[in-house]
C-alpha cells in the first residue's frame, strides 16, 4: 500500500471540494461557491489525484469531464457530502428539540419511589427522548462515567458540578406496629435504649447520631445503635417493616406504608434531620447543556418543587 500523501481529514475535505467542482462544472464556479481561490481549489483536486494515484478529470478550455476513476470517486464524494449535510441537520435539530439518549443516575430508593412513577409523564411530553437510568447507592463521577444528569440528596452541589434544587427531603422516624419497644418511646432520648435502623454511606459499623428537634425548636442529638447498618434506604425500610427496629427514612420511601398502617410514625411531633439535604439535579458545567437535559430538569422541577 502506498504511503498516504495527505491525512484522512484533508482527503475528506479534498473529496468535498472535488464533488463541488463536478457539480459547478468548473474550478472557477466551485471556488466562488466555496469562498476559495481558483488555485486553491485546483491544488485540492491535484492532491486528491496524487493521493489516489488516478486522473479524475479531463480538463479542457471549455468544460470538465469525469474519467472512469473519477466517476467512481465522485460517487463516494457525493455520499460524503450527503452524510456531512445530514450530520449538520441532525445536530441542528438536536439543538432545537429534546431528543436522543439521556444518561441519568440516582440512588436505588429515589429511582424506585420518585423517578419511576414520573417517567411515563415525561415520555408523554418528550417522546423523542430515551432514558438510560442507572440506580446505584454509591458516589458516581458524572464526568468520568459519562452521565448527563444525576439526582442526589445533598446540601449543595459538590464541586465541580452545577445543580438545580428539586425539593426538600423530609425524614421520618417510623416503626412496625408490632415493634416491641414502640410504647416505650416518649422522648427523643428514649431512642438510645431501642434498636434503631439507619442508612450509612460509608463503611462504618456505627450509626451516625440522630438529631431531632422538639415542638419548641430545641434540638436533641441521640447516640443510637441497632442490629444492622446498611447503605440502602430500601433495605432499612424492609427491616423496619419486619419489626427489627425504629427506622429513620426519607418520607418518599415510606409514605404508602404509613398510609396503609404497615408502619407508624414515631415521635410525630418531633422533626428528624436526615443524613442528607434536599434533592438536587446535578450536571457537569464543562459540557453544553442539551435540550434533553434541560427538558428533564424542567420537568422534575415542575413536578417536585412543591413536594
From TrEMBL:
Q: Which UniProt keywords apply?
A: DNA-binding, Transcription, Transcription regulation
User: Which InterPro entries is this protein grouped with?
Assistant: LysR-type_TF_proteobact-type, LysR_HTH_N, LysR_subst-bd, WH-like_DNA-bd_sf, WH_DNA-bd_sf
SUPFAM superfamilies in the cross-refs? Periplasmic binding protein-like II (SSF53850), Winged helix' DNA-binding domain (SSF46785)
Task: Indicate yes or no for the key word DNA-binding.
Answer: yes
Q: Known PANTHER family for this protein?
A: HTH-TYPE TRANSCRIPTIONAL REGULATOR, HTH-TYPE TRANSCRIPTIONAL REGULATOR PERR
Q: What is this protein called?
A: LysR family transcriptional regulator
Tell me which family the UniProt entry assigns to this protein.
Answer: Belongs to the LysR transcriptional regulatory family.
Organism field: Ideonella azotifigens
Chain ranges of the HTH lysR-type domain: 10-67
Pfam families xrefs: HTH_1, LysR_substrate
Amino acid at each position: 500500500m502506498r504511503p498516504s500523501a495527505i491525512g484522512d481529514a484533508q482527503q475528506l475535505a479534498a473529496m468535498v471540494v472535488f464533488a463541488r467542482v463536478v457539480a459547478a462544472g468548473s474550478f472557477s464556479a466551485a471556488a466562488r461557491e466555496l469562498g476559495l481561490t481558483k488555485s486553491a481549489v485546483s491544488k485540492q483536486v491535484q492532491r486528491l489525484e496524487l493521493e489516489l494515484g488516478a486522473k479524475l478529470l479531463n480538463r479542457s478550455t471549455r468544460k470538465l469531464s469525469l474519467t472512469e476513476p473519477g466517476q467512481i470517486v465522485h460517487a463516494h464524494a457525493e455520499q460524503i457530502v450527503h452524510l456531512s449535510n445530514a450530520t449538520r441537520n441532525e445536530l441542528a435539530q438536536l439543538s432545537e428539540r429534546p431528543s436522543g439518549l439521556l444518561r441519568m443516575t440516582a440512588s436505588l430508593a429515589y429511582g424506585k419511589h420518585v423517578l419511576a412513577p414520573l417517567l411515563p409523564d415525561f415520555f408523554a411530553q418528550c417522546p423523542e427522548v430515551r432514558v438510560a437510568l442507572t440506580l446505584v447507592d454509591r458516589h458516581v463521577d458524572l464526568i468520568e462515567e459519562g452521565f448527563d444528569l444525576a439526582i442526589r440528596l445533598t446540601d449543595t452541589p459538590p464541586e465541580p458540578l452545577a445543580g438545580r434544587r428539586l425539593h426538600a427531603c423530609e425524614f421520618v422516624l417510623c416503626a412496625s406496629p408490632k415493634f416491641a419497644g414502640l410504647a416505650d418511646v416518649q422522648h427523643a432520648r428514649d431512642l438510645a435504649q431501642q434498636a434503631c435502623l439507619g442508612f450509612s454511606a460509608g463503611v462504618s459499623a456505627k450509626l451516625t447520631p440522630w438529631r431531632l428537634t422538639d415542638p419548641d425548636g430545641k434540638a436533641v442529638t441521640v447516640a443510637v445503635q441497632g442490629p444492622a447498618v446498611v447503605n440502602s434506604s430500601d433495605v432499612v425500610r424492609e427491616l423496619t417493616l419486619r419489626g427489627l427496629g425504629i427506622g429513620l427514612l426519607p418520607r418518599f420511601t415510606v409514605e404508602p406504608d404509613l398510609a396503609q398502617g404497615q408502619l407508624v410514625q414515631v415521635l410525630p411531633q418531633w422533626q428528624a434531620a436526615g443524613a442528607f439535604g434536599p434533592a438536587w439535579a446535578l450536571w457537569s458545567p464543562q459540557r453544553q447543556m442539551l435540550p434533553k437535559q434541560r427538558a428533564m430538569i424542567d420537568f422534575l422541577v415542575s413536578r417536585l418543587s412543591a413536594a
